[in-house]
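User: I'll paste a sequence; please echo it back and then give the predicted structure.

Assistant: Echoing your sequence first, then the prediction.
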Amino acid sequence: MKVFIGYVSLSGNTEKMAVNIRNQMMAVGCEVYMERLDTVEVDTLKEFDLAFIGLYTWNQEGLPYEANEFYEELDQADLHGMKVALFGAGDLSQPKPCGAINILSDKMKRCGVAVYSRVLKIDKEAPAYDMARKCEDFADQALDWGSKRKKWRFLIWNRMQNNPKYQKTAYLIRRALDDYPIK
């Protein structure tokens, strides 16, 4: 499965979240491309099966300036049916925490994009361990939603990869899946 991860980050928290999501997607065998949103053409999202988009929130509820061009290009792109999961870091004590994510989500829905109903919002002061765990869980759930695969496959796969007794079997399965990808 081809996965795109696009993000903009000011303090580095959203970038850390993107890296954690990338690592989880690679761990389950996805082909992952990660880039900053200010360098991405919106039309390139069509090439991917699933996209993760991460934003920080500027001025408590505005879009970051790096994402403005991406936001404006959404109107011209034909992304009907594209599956996107949104994430971001911000101050969760604010009345509208991570408001930029809500703004982008609304626009994407109006443009025909299928937006994952669960949005990952992490407080900017969250410990690194909690952030990593939440990002991994979110990535697994979004992948399950995006690929329509059964959850038990991922549970078995994760157990096989983490158990030394089954690591060789997991490696052989991964090689077989690379030779004959599931579409």
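The first strand starts at residue 2 and ends at 7. The domain at 2-149 is CATH 3.40.50.360 (Rossmann fold).
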